[in-house]
Amino acid sequence: MQKDFILITLADDDEDDRLFFTDAFEELKINTVVNTVNDGVALMNFLNAPGTVLPNIIFLDLNMPLKSGIECLKEIKANPKFKDIVIAIYSTSSSEEDIENTFVLGANIYIKKPSHFGKLKEVLSEVVTLNWQYITSGLNKDNFLLRM
Amino acid sequence: MKLFLKTDSHFLIKKILKEKLDVFNIKYNLINTNEILFLETIDTETYEKIATVLNDYGFEIIENQKNIIVQKIKETIIEMIANDQIPSVKSSVYLAEKLNHSYGYLSNLFSEVTYTSIENFIILQKIEYVKKLITHHNLTLTEIAFKLNYSSVAHLSSQFKNTTGITPSAFQRILKKRSEINNQNIN
């Protein structure tokens, strides 16, 4: 009897990546409901649409056409309506400056995109499980920083 | 014409619960008017249906027993850390004594409900407390390590890094920059 689940939105322009992520989410122990968007503009439209049930966590690709992950991050953080959403940025970049900058702008999680599926599953499992503790144990989201 | 009525609410509640629950063909015991024991496992869908039906009559499902015990475990851990009372006995012994269940039982139950282990939860809460001390109390890492009974600053630092992926000083720097940006926006 488990009715708990976590709402995830994934923003990525690469179809293969979206597939990898959704597959990985499906294999987690925690129940997830995942919805995907193909770029930053679509993400913001989705979040701003009336009647949208806001996700618990957004996985945001840093490099997307139309509107980049950083622009989305800034917009999300500027709107108090979205203050409860945890933001997980992922990118192939491992530049210290990029990483620190996304944290300073308000991202909670930075994931360096792993090169193979097994590792990705491991990383996502850790992220979602930790996020679950933040949802269920009243931890302070402002102090939620995780680098994977 | 007026009618004067008298009711027995206990009787009424039992009758409603019985009528509503019998429909689902699940074996159950009415322990009391506020406690139902299901004698078989019920799936999420049925659980939702039962909750909806009972809700129509003003019944609210509070929580199941497992969640209550898990909640107690969490509270005990948080209290243990916040009061700086890292017990001299091992935390497993402490929890078992405090909650009157074997540690094995508590540990299994905890993992089942929270998807993480008691050990990980304790580390998470400790690091959470460290973050609070860093940001709100301006304590140095040395002071924090002493306060929380870490054997050394190095041990505290490495546990922080292992849990969050960043060092305590990077954490401090990031939060400081964040609040500077927020202050600029306000001004």
Secondary structure elements and pairings:
The complex is a heterodimer of chains A (148) and B (187).
Chain A: E1 6-11, H1 15-26, E2 32-37, H2 40-48, E3 57-61, H3 69-78, E4 86-91, H4 96-104, E5 109-112, H5 117-136, E6 146-147
Parallel strand pairs in A: 1-2, 1-3, 3-4, 4-5, 5-6
Chain B: H1 9-22, E1 28-32, E2 35-38, H2 44-56, H3 65-82, H4 91-99, H5 103-114, H6 118-136, H7 141-147, H8 153-164, H9 168-186
Antiparallel strand pairs in B: 1-2
Helix pairs in contact in B: 3-5, 3-6, 7-8
Highlighted features:
heterodimer; A: 148 residues; alpha/beta; Rossmann fold; B: 187 residues; mainly alpha; Arc Repressor Mutant, subunit A; 2 strands; elongated
Task: Provide a concise account of the structure shown.
Chain A has 148 residues and is of the alpha/beta class.
- Reading side by side through the largest sheet of chain B, how are the strands ordered? 1-2
What's the main sheet of chain B like? 2 strands, antiparallel
**Biggest sheet of chain A: strands, sense, closure?**
6 strands, parallel
Tell me the number of structural domains of chain B.
3
Tell me the β content of chain B. under 5%
Query: CATH first level of the largest domain in chain B: which class?
Result: Mainly Alpha
Helix content of chain A: 40-55%
Order of helices and strands of chain B: HEEHHHHHHHH
Q: What class do helices, strands and sheet pairing of chain A give? A: alpha/beta
CATH superfamily of chain A: Response regulator
CATH architecture of chain A: 3-Layer(aba) Sandwich
Under the CATH scheme, which class of chain A? Answer: Alpha Beta
**Outline of chain B, from the CA principal axes?**
elongated
User: What name is given to the CATH topology of chain A?
Assistant: Rossmann fold
Unreliable spans of chain A: none
The counted number of beta strands of chain B is: 2
Q: Strand order within the widest sheet of chain A? A: 2-1-3-4-5-6
Helix-strand category of chain B: mainly alpha
The shape of chain A, in one word, is: globular
Uncertain residue ranges of chain B: none
**Corresponding CATH superfamily of the largest domain in chain B:** Homeodomain-like
